[in-house]
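Schema walk-through. Below, the input block comes first and the output block second. Nothing else is stored per chain. Lengths vary across the set, and this one has 275 residues.
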Amino acid sequence: MSDERTASGLGPTSGREDETFAVRRLAPHVYVITELGCVHCYLVQGRDWVLLVDSGLGCGNVRAVVQRLTDRPVVVVNTHGHPDHTGGNHRFESIALHGAEADWLERVVPGADRIEFDGGALPVDRQEAPWGLAHRLSHGETLDLGGGVALEVWHTPGHTPGSLCLLDEASRFVFAGDTAYAGLVALHFDESDLSAYAETVKNLEAIGWETNLVLPGHGETPLDGGILLEVGAGVRRLLNGEGQYREGRWNGEPVFDVGLGRFSVRIRRSFKDPA
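--- output ---
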């Protein structure tokens, strides 16, 4: 099903891009572009338009990779505003994301040359925000790329207020960003909301049986639709005080990493022990 290649297999590219990106074809109209083995962007090709779901860390030139895959006009849709998903935005003219998240594009430090990610600092190439914000998306909106390829926007708050997923109903794919994946879902940020996340995963669980593939922002990809069922059931266990708790700290604040099967969540200790 998949066609795995490095960026160098797509045509002339710099040595840095060779080391930064890997590309796989997941379906006739979908490529995954993985940056430094840890952040996934997805290129969704329609007859008339191409959608890039997230633009990655910004450690390499993701646009150069995209241009080797398509010559159609490209719109970037950010699943949310965190910098590991918006780092390549400045290389594109048209950016769309949920309206509740639009202000995140203003928060990126102009000229920043490093990003803190996964316990380390990575070099990035950023330019002043905003980067041509084309559209503020809303729940239920349909993005028609032409030729029978269309994605429905689902507002899925929890990780952040404006997190969204994109549903490809024809293929039964869900582009999930940081909402659902096989790994550690972060719910401990100031902008995170566990109650909103519980409602979000309840809605996603309802389509789990009908979903062929889940395409997340991190970790293993693609995943089967069963991950949506597991996340829904896991969050119910979390709210009942169940799961495997491991204590840790984040920015000096106590947190818990709670194992719930194929995935886990990071929550503030105050959720478990309000006192």
